[in-house]
UniProtKB/TrEMBL annotation:
GO terms for cellular component: cytosol. It catalyses: [ThiI sulfur-carrier protein]-S-sulfanyl-L-cysteine + a uridine in tRNA + 2 reduced [2Fe-2S]-[ferredoxin] + ATP + H(+) = [ThiI sulfur-carrier protein]-L-cysteine + a 4-thiouridine in tRNA + 2 oxidized [2Fe-2S]-[ferredoxin] + AMP + diphosphate; [ThiS sulfur-carrier protein]-C-terminal Gly-Gly-AMP + S-sulfanyl-L-cysteinyl-[cysteine desulfurase] + AH2 = [ThiS sulfur-carrier protein]-C-terminal-Gly-aminoethanethioate + L-cysteinyl-[cysteine desulfurase] + A + AMP + 2 H(+). Pfam families: ThiI (PF02568), ThiI_fer (PF22025), THUMP (PF02926). It comes from Candidatus Coprosoma intestinipullorum. This is Probable tRNA sulfurtransferase.
Length: 389
């Protein structure tokens, strides 16, 4: 394996006490991402080196791993300046004109100070090539890192995904619908290091097979950032029909969402998740006013985190596009909320009304029954309709 990728860690370097755990989790996540590639990982507290055969392909995969600050194709040579010069001239793009050397010295026993080393190497490059120095706006930045085991040189530095390694902040349960908002909420949770499992409420025959497939496609996109996603599909038809029959039109959505939250919390505890995540955004629809949130949130004690609560729709769309979910999210399949949409949902629901209307429902029993019949999906290759017949 003669190619080398060097990784700088993201935010985790500031968390001194947790560093070991963070690096360990990041390593495990990278190993999982590269499980089909030939790669050897060597790590220390500040850098990770991946020896491999197909650096371009591996670089692409690493771009989706949270906890990485930057990714560079690097070259390792001996700690002697002639070898460093030779390798530098090899990797500096000949079509470019100007350069600047930045040296860092992790090996403090190395005698020459960094600034002096940069200027020595710069002078040698000037002498042996057409390149000119430009310290303010160079075409090429040549990074040189002098370590005890050798000198690493590189000229490219791609921005990593940032954030924390997935898993270091525990687990959350994401309410994943087929819309634009909840996949973005999931992406943001993953970026903060929360591993997620997803919950999707389906109401066949009111919701279609395509709607479920769409959710699985979105889960698959999120899985590229995690590798461990599961989708828990809750049969929700009976609960929705009961609400439809027994509760006033205007409160249907509020009560339906209270049922979703109850199920989510009960199940989250079962799978050891610490919080519920969803794609609610303040004021986007009637069920997402602050008054609605008060009524809905009231049925759970677990934290409910709404990563996109204060984002504009356009900001959410931009993120959806960035993660490659937007095209899927806008496919025109209904979800269970749109099927039973009342003409005039209450915008400022009252908690006492919710409680009173719910007395018409035997909801504890309905909730347990729904949870008992949850289908767990880990394979996101979409099933074909014929496969189910
Ligand atoms: P999205 O674009 O994410 O579908 P939305 O704007 O359509 O959101 P709502 O339908 O009110 O808004 O849902 C708000 C949040 O509730 C969603 O972002 C999602 O987290 C959750 N949710 C809604 N419907 C479902 C469902 N069928 N299964 C799982 N979660 C759901
Ligand atoms: Mg929706």
């Amino acid at each position: 394996m003669n190619e080398l990728i060097m990784i700088k860690y993201g935010e985790l370097t500031t968390k001194k006490d947790n560093r070991k755990y963070f690096v360990k989790t990041l390593t495990a996540n990278i190993e999982a991402t590269l499980k089909d590639e030939k790669a050897q990982i060597i790590k220390n507290n500040v850098r990770m080196y991946i020896y491999c055969e197909n650096a371009d392909k591996i670089e692409e995969k690493l771009k989706k791993v949270f906890g990485i600050h930057s990714i560079s194709k690097a070259y390792k040579v001996n700690n002697n300046i002639e070898d460093v010069l030779k390798k530098s001239l090899e990797i500096m793009d000949r079509n470019k004109k100007t350069f600047k050397v930045i040296t860092s010295r992790a090996d403090k026993t190395f005698k020459t100070p960094s600034m002096e080393y940069s200027s020595n190497l710069g002078a040698l490059i000037l002498k042996n090539s057409h390149f000119k120095v430009d310290v303010h706006n160079p075409d090429i930045i040549l990074h040189v890192e002098i370590r005890t085991d050798g000198t690493y040189v590189y000229t490219s530095e791609i921005k990593g995904a940032g954030g924390y390694p997935v898993g270091v902040q525990g687990k959350g349960l994401l309410m994943l619908s087929g819309g634009i908002d909840s996949p973005v909420a999931g992406y943001l949770a993953l970026k903060r290091g929360v591993s997620i499992e997803c919950m999707y409420f389906e109401s066949p025959p009111h919701t279609s097979f395509e709607a479920k497939n769409k959710v699985l496609s979105l889960a698959k996109i999120l899985n590229e950032y995690s590798g461990k996603i599961k989708v828990h599909v809750v049969p929700f038809t009976k609960i929705q029909e009961e609400i439809y029959k027994k509760c006033p039109d205007t409160y249907m959505i509020t009560i339906m969402r209270r049922m979703m939250y109850r199920i989510a919390e009960k199940y989250a505890k079962k799978i050891n998740a610490h919080a519920i995540f969803n794609g609610e955004s303040i004021g986007q629809v009637a069920s997402q006013t602050l008054e609605s949130m008060v009524c809905v949130n009231n049925v759970v004690s677990m934290p409910v985190i709404r990563p996109v609560a204060c984002f504009d729709k356009l900001e959410i769309i931009a993120l959806a596009e960035k993660i490659g979910a937007y095209e899927t999210s806008i496919l025109p399949y209904e979800d269970c909320c749109t099927i039973f949409v009342p003409k005039h949902p209450v915008i400022k629901p009252k908690l006492e009304n919710c409680i009173s209307y719910e007395q018409n429902l035997d909801y504890e029993k309905l909730i347990d029954e729904a949870i008992d019949n949850i289908e767990v999906i880990t394979n996101f290759e979409k099933p074909k309709y014929e496969d189910l017949l």
